[in-house]
Amino acid sequence: MTPLFTDLHITDFRGIQDLKLSGFNRVNLIVGENNTGKTTLLEALALCAAPQEAGNLLQRFRLSSGVSNPGRWLQRDGSTAKCSNISLGGDNRVAGVVLCKQSETSFPKSKDEPMKETQSPGNGRLWHNISHPRLRIRTVAVQHRTPQDLVIDFSTAVRSKQGEQELESLLHAVDDRIKAVRLDYEGDNRQPYISADIGLSERVPISQLGQGVNRLIAIFCELLGQRPAICFIDEIENGLHHTVLKRIWQGIAEVAERLDIQVFATTHRRECLEAAHHCFEERKSCDFRVVQLYRVREQIDGRVLDREHIEAAVESEIEVRG
Asked: Any idea what the CATH number is for the domain that residue 123 is in?
Protein backbone atom coordinates (compact mmCIF):
# COMPACT_ATOMS: atom_id res chain seq x y z
CA MET A 1 0.00 0.00 0.00
CA THR A 2 1.16 3.51 -0.78
CA PRO A 3 1.50 5.84 2.21
CA LEU A 4 -0.97 8.71 2.25
CA PHE A 5 1.67 11.46 2.46
CA THR A 6 5.39 11.27 1.77
CA ASP A 7 6.56 14.90 1.75
CA LEU A 8 6.24 17.87 4.11
CA HIS A 9 7.31 21.51 3.92
CA ILE A 10 6.92 23.90 6.88
CA THR A 11 7.83 27.58 7.07
CA ASP A 12 7.55 29.90 10.08
CA PHE A 13 5.46 27.59 12.27
CA ARG A 14 6.23 27.62 16.01
CA GLY A 15 10.02 27.11 16.31
CA ILE A 16 10.50 25.95 12.72
CA GLN A 17 11.80 28.48 10.19
CA ASP A 18 12.06 26.30 7.09
CA LEU A 19 11.91 22.50 7.16
CA LYS A 20 11.56 20.08 4.25
CA LEU A 21 11.16 16.34 4.80
CA SER A 22 10.70 13.68 2.16
CA GLY A 23 10.24 9.92 2.34
CA PHE A 24 7.52 9.27 4.93
CA ASN A 25 6.10 5.76 4.88
CA ARG A 26 3.22 3.84 6.45
CA VAL A 27 4.65 4.08 10.00
CA ASN A 28 6.95 6.94 11.01
CA LEU A 29 8.77 7.43 14.32
CA ILE A 30 10.00 10.96 15.12
CA VAL A 31 13.13 11.22 17.28
CA GLY A 32 15.47 13.99 18.39
CA GLU A 33 16.93 15.77 21.37
CA ASN A 34 14.93 18.14 23.53
CA ASN A 35 13.66 21.29 21.78
CA THR A 36 14.05 19.97 18.24
CA GLY A 37 10.36 20.25 17.38
CA LYS A 38 8.99 16.69 17.65
CA THR A 39 5.59 17.76 18.98
CA THR A 40 5.58 20.77 16.66
CA LEU A 41 6.01 18.41 13.72
CA LEU A 42 2.94 16.41 14.84
CA GLU A 43 0.95 19.64 15.14
CA ALA A 44 1.95 20.77 11.67
CA LEU A 45 1.02 17.40 10.19
CA ALA A 46 -2.34 17.35 11.98
CA LEU A 47 -3.18 20.94 11.03
CA CYS A 48 -2.37 20.37 7.36
CA ALA A 49 -3.95 16.94 7.10
CA ALA A 50 -7.26 18.00 8.66
CA PRO A 51 -7.72 21.80 8.72
CA GLN A 52 -11.45 21.23 9.39
CA GLU A 53 -10.39 20.05 12.87
CA ALA A 54 -8.06 22.99 13.50
CA GLY A 55 -10.11 24.18 16.46
CA ASN A 56 -8.99 21.09 18.41
CA LEU A 57 -5.31 21.35 17.45
CA LEU A 58 -4.14 23.02 20.66
CA GLN A 59 -5.66 20.32 22.85
CA ARG A 60 -4.26 17.39 20.87
CA PHE A 61 -0.65 17.46 22.00
CA ARG A 62 -0.14 20.16 24.66
CA LEU A 63 -1.62 21.30 27.95
CA SER A 64 -3.16 24.75 27.53
CA SER A 65 -4.89 25.24 30.89
CA GLY A 66 -4.38 28.67 32.40
CA VAL A 67 -3.31 30.22 29.07
CA SER A 68 -5.90 32.56 27.60
CA ASN A 69 -4.66 32.40 24.00
CA PRO A 70 -2.10 29.64 23.33
CA GLY A 71 -2.71 30.06 19.60
CA ARG A 72 -0.62 33.22 19.50
CA TRP A 73 2.51 31.04 19.64
CA LEU A 74 1.72 29.10 16.46
CA GLN A 75 3.60 31.51 14.20
CA ARG A 76 7.36 31.57 14.63
CA ASP A 77 8.47 34.24 17.08
CA GLY A 78 10.46 37.02 15.44
CA SER A 79 9.50 36.05 11.90
CA THR A 80 9.01 38.89 9.42
CA ALA A 81 6.82 36.70 7.21
CA LYS A 82 3.12 37.54 7.15
CA CYS A 83 2.02 33.90 7.24
CA SER A 84 3.06 30.38 8.19
CA ASN A 85 2.84 27.74 5.45
CA ILE A 86 2.49 23.96 5.71
CA SER A 87 2.16 21.65 2.72
CA LEU A 88 1.85 17.87 2.40
CA GLY A 89 2.19 15.79 -0.73
CA GLY A 90 2.05 12.18 -1.86
CA ASP A 91 -0.16 9.47 -3.36
CA ASN A 92 -1.60 11.97 -5.87
CA ARG A 93 -2.77 14.13 -2.96
CA VAL A 94 -1.73 17.68 -2.15
CA ALA A 95 -2.73 19.39 1.09
CA GLY A 96 -1.76 22.89 2.12
CA VAL A 97 -2.63 25.45 4.78
CA VAL A 98 -1.70 29.09 5.33
CA LEU A 99 -1.90 30.51 8.86
CA CYS A 100 -1.84 34.29 9.31
CA LYS A 101 -2.30 36.78 12.11
CA GLN A 102 -5.82 38.05 12.70
CA SER A 103 -4.82 41.46 11.35
CA GLU A 104 -3.93 40.02 7.93
CA THR A 105 -6.81 40.45 5.49
CA SER A 106 -5.18 38.62 2.61
CA PHE A 107 -2.34 36.28 1.79
CA PRO A 108 -0.32 35.53 -1.36
CA LYS A 109 -2.81 33.89 -3.72
CA SER A 110 -2.14 31.45 -6.52
CA LYS A 111 -4.34 30.80 -9.54
CA ASP A 112 -3.14 27.19 -9.54
CA GLU A 113 -4.21 26.58 -5.95
CA PRO A 114 -7.33 28.53 -4.85
CA MET A 115 -7.73 28.76 -1.08
CA LYS A 116 -10.68 28.77 1.31
CA GLU A 117 -10.76 30.21 4.83
CA THR A 118 -11.69 27.88 7.67
CA GLN A 119 -11.75 27.84 11.47
CA SER A 120 -8.40 28.79 12.95
CA PRO A 121 -6.71 27.56 16.10
CA GLY A 122 -6.15 30.52 18.41
CA ASN A 123 -7.02 34.00 17.14
CA GLY A 124 -5.32 33.83 13.74
CA ARG A 125 -6.76 33.19 10.28
CA LEU A 126 -6.40 29.87 8.48
CA TRP A 127 -6.82 29.03 4.79
CA HIS A 128 -6.60 25.63 3.09
CA ASN A 129 -6.49 24.70 -0.57
CA ILE A 130 -9.93 23.91 -2.02
CA SER A 131 -8.74 20.59 -3.48
CA HIS A 132 -7.67 19.48 0.02
CA PRO A 133 -8.76 15.87 0.67
CA ARG A 134 -11.09 15.63 3.66
CA LEU A 135 -9.39 13.20 6.03
CA ARG A 136 -10.19 11.71 9.41
CA ILE A 137 -7.32 11.97 11.87
CA ARG A 138 -7.00 10.60 15.38
CA THR A 139 -4.68 11.35 18.26
CA VAL A 140 -4.22 8.26 20.42
CA ALA A 141 -3.98 9.21 24.09
CA VAL A 142 -0.72 8.26 25.78
CA GLN A 143 -2.48 7.99 29.15
CA HIS A 144 -3.77 4.59 30.13
CA ARG A 145 -7.53 4.32 29.59
CA THR A 146 -9.75 3.78 32.62
CA PRO A 147 -11.55 0.42 32.63
CA GLN A 148 -14.85 2.25 32.01
CA ASP A 149 -13.52 4.22 29.03
CA LEU A 150 -11.94 1.07 27.60
CA VAL A 151 -15.28 -0.76 27.79
CA ILE A 152 -16.91 2.08 25.81
CA ASP A 153 -14.15 2.03 23.16
CA PHE A 154 -14.39 -1.77 22.96
CA SER A 155 -18.17 -1.66 22.48
CA THR A 156 -17.77 0.85 19.64
CA ALA A 157 -15.05 -1.20 17.95
CA VAL A 158 -17.00 -4.49 18.00
CA ARG A 159 -20.43 -3.04 17.22
CA SER A 160 -20.22 -4.63 13.79
CA LYS A 161 -19.35 -8.28 13.22
CA GLN A 162 -16.49 -7.16 11.00
CA GLY A 163 -15.05 -5.03 13.81
CA GLU A 164 -15.21 -7.93 16.27
CA GLN A 165 -13.45 -10.25 13.85
CA GLU A 166 -10.78 -7.65 13.02
CA LEU A 167 -10.06 -6.98 16.70
CA GLU A 168 -9.66 -10.66 17.51
CA SER A 169 -7.52 -11.22 14.41
CA LEU A 170 -5.24 -8.30 15.29
CA LEU A 171 -4.82 -9.45 18.88
CA HIS A 172 -4.15 -13.04 17.83
CA ALA A 173 -1.50 -11.86 15.35
CA VAL A 174 0.39 -10.15 18.18
CA ASP A 175 -0.36 -12.66 20.96
CA ASP A 176 -1.39 -16.10 19.69
CA ARG A 177 -2.79 -17.05 23.12
CA ILE A 178 -5.78 -14.78 22.47
CA LYS A 179 -8.63 -16.59 20.70
CA ALA A 180 -11.50 -14.20 21.45
CA VAL A 181 -12.40 -11.11 23.52
CA ARG A 182 -15.79 -10.45 25.09
CA LEU A 183 -17.59 -8.23 27.60
CA ASP A 184 -18.22 -9.90 30.96
CA TYR A 185 -19.99 -8.71 34.10
CA GLU A 186 -19.14 -9.07 37.76
CA GLY A 187 -20.57 -8.19 41.16
CA ASP A 188 -24.00 -7.16 42.32
CA ASN A 189 -23.94 -4.00 40.19
CA ARG A 190 -23.02 -6.01 37.06
CA GLN A 191 -19.91 -3.92 36.38
CA PRO A 192 -18.73 -4.65 32.78
CA TYR A 193 -15.15 -5.55 31.97
CA ILE A 194 -13.29 -7.03 28.99
CA SER A 195 -12.14 -10.63 29.16
CA ALA A 196 -10.15 -12.83 26.79
CA ASP A 197 -10.17 -16.50 25.86
CA ILE A 198 -6.55 -17.66 26.10
CA GLY A 199 -7.28 -21.38 26.12
CA LEU A 200 -8.00 -21.77 29.86
CA SER A 201 -11.15 -23.22 31.37
CA GLU A 202 -12.70 -19.75 31.56
CA ARG A 203 -12.07 -16.30 30.11
CA VAL A 204 -9.52 -14.08 31.88
CA PRO A 205 -9.88 -10.31 32.56
CA ILE A 206 -7.52 -8.47 30.21
CA SER A 207 -6.05 -6.69 33.25
CA GLN A 208 -4.38 -10.05 33.99
CA LEU A 209 -2.71 -10.27 30.57
CA GLY A 210 -0.08 -7.61 31.14
CA GLN A 211 0.58 -3.96 30.41
CA GLY A 212 1.38 -4.42 26.71
CA VAL A 213 -1.82 -6.33 25.86
CA ASN A 214 -3.94 -3.75 27.71
CA ARG A 215 -2.36 -0.86 25.79
CA LEU A 216 -2.74 -2.70 22.48
CA ILE A 217 -6.41 -3.40 23.10
CA ALA A 218 -6.92 0.31 23.85
CA ILE A 219 -5.13 1.34 20.64
CA PHE A 220 -6.88 -1.27 18.50
CA CYS A 221 -10.33 -0.39 19.87
CA GLU A 222 -9.80 3.32 19.30
CA LEU A 223 -8.60 2.90 15.72
CA LEU A 224 -11.17 0.25 14.80
CA GLY A 225 -13.95 2.39 16.21
CA GLN A 226 -12.84 5.65 14.55
CA ARG A 227 -11.05 4.31 11.42
CA PRO A 228 -8.93 7.40 10.74
CA ALA A 229 -6.71 7.93 7.72
CA ILE A 230 -3.85 9.21 9.90
CA CYS A 231 -3.04 8.41 13.53
CA PHE A 232 -0.80 10.52 15.80
CA ILE A 233 0.80 9.19 18.99
CA ASP A 234 2.93 11.59 21.05
CA GLU A 235 5.44 9.90 23.41
CA ILE A 236 4.30 6.42 22.45
CA GLU A 237 6.38 4.78 25.18
CA ASN A 238 4.75 6.78 28.00
CA GLY A 239 4.11 4.56 31.03
CA LEU A 240 5.30 1.38 29.32
CA HIS A 241 8.07 -0.93 30.47
CA HIS A 242 10.78 -1.45 27.85
CA THR A 243 10.03 -5.19 27.71
CA VAL A 244 6.59 -4.60 26.11
CA LEU A 245 7.67 -2.05 23.49
CA LYS A 246 8.34 -4.56 20.72
CA ARG A 247 4.87 -6.06 21.19
CA ILE A 248 3.35 -2.58 20.98
CA TRP A 249 5.14 -1.96 17.68
CA GLN A 250 4.04 -5.34 16.35
CA GLY A 251 0.46 -4.30 17.07
CA ILE A 252 0.87 -0.88 15.46
CA ALA A 253 2.43 -2.46 12.38
CA GLU A 254 -0.52 -4.86 12.05
CA VAL A 255 -3.26 -2.28 12.55
CA ALA A 256 -1.61 0.26 10.23
CA GLU A 257 -1.33 -2.28 7.42
CA ARG A 258 -4.74 -3.92 7.82
CA LEU A 259 -6.75 -0.72 8.28
CA ASP A 260 -4.66 1.32 5.82
CA ILE A 261 -3.69 3.94 8.43
CA GLN A 262 -0.63 6.17 8.28
CA VAL A 263 1.02 6.55 11.70
CA PHE A 264 3.22 9.33 13.06
CA ALA A 265 4.62 8.83 16.57
CA THR A 266 7.27 10.44 18.76
CA THR A 267 9.55 8.95 21.39
CA HIS A 268 12.09 10.09 23.98
CA ARG A 269 13.53 6.62 24.62
CA ARG A 270 16.21 4.72 22.75
CA GLU A 271 14.59 1.42 23.74
CA CYS A 272 11.47 2.48 21.82
CA LEU A 273 13.45 3.20 18.66
CA GLU A 274 15.31 -0.08 18.92
CA ALA A 275 12.09 -2.04 19.52
CA ALA A 276 10.48 -0.45 16.47
CA HIS A 277 13.53 -1.15 14.31
CA HIS A 278 13.68 -4.82 15.34
CA CYS A 279 9.93 -5.23 14.85
CA PHE A 280 9.90 -3.92 11.28
CA GLU A 281 13.21 -5.62 10.48
CA GLU A 282 11.41 -8.95 10.95
CA ARG A 283 8.51 -7.99 8.67
CA LYS A 284 8.49 -8.55 4.90
CA SER A 285 7.20 -5.07 4.14
CA CYS A 286 9.63 -2.17 4.42
CA ASP A 287 7.07 0.41 5.54
CA PHE A 288 8.85 2.00 8.52
CA ARG A 289 10.80 5.25 8.62
CA VAL A 290 12.56 7.25 11.32
CA VAL A 291 12.29 11.03 11.17
CA GLN A 292 15.35 12.52 12.86
CA LEU A 293 15.12 16.15 13.96
CA TYR A 294 18.14 18.19 15.08
CA ARG A 295 19.39 21.76 15.38
CA VAL A 296 21.89 23.39 13.02
CA ARG A 297 22.95 26.94 13.89
CA GLU A 298 19.88 27.37 16.11
CA GLN A 299 17.54 26.26 13.32
CA ILE A 300 15.52 23.04 13.32
CA ASP A 301 16.40 20.66 10.49
CA GLY A 302 15.76 16.99 9.85
CA ARG A 303 15.92 13.96 7.60
CA VAL A 304 13.93 10.80 6.98
CA LEU A 305 15.87 7.55 7.43
CA ASP A 306 15.11 4.36 5.49
CA ARG A 307 15.82 0.83 6.77
CA GLU A 308 19.53 0.87 5.92
CA HIS A 309 20.10 4.25 7.52
CA ILE A 310 17.95 3.37 10.55
CA GLU A 311 20.19 0.39 11.24
CA ALA A 312 23.28 2.59 11.00
CA ALA A 313 21.70 5.21 13.27
CA VAL A 314 20.78 2.59 15.88
CA GLU A 315 24.32 1.20 15.84
CA SER A 316 25.79 4.69 16.22
CA GLU A 317 23.42 5.43 19.15
CA ILE A 318 21.42 8.22 17.57
CA GLU A 319 20.25 10.70 20.23
CA VAL A 320 16.52 10.49 20.92
CA ARG A 321 16.16 11.74 24.48
CA GLY A 322 14.50 15.02 25.27
From this structure: 3.40.50.300
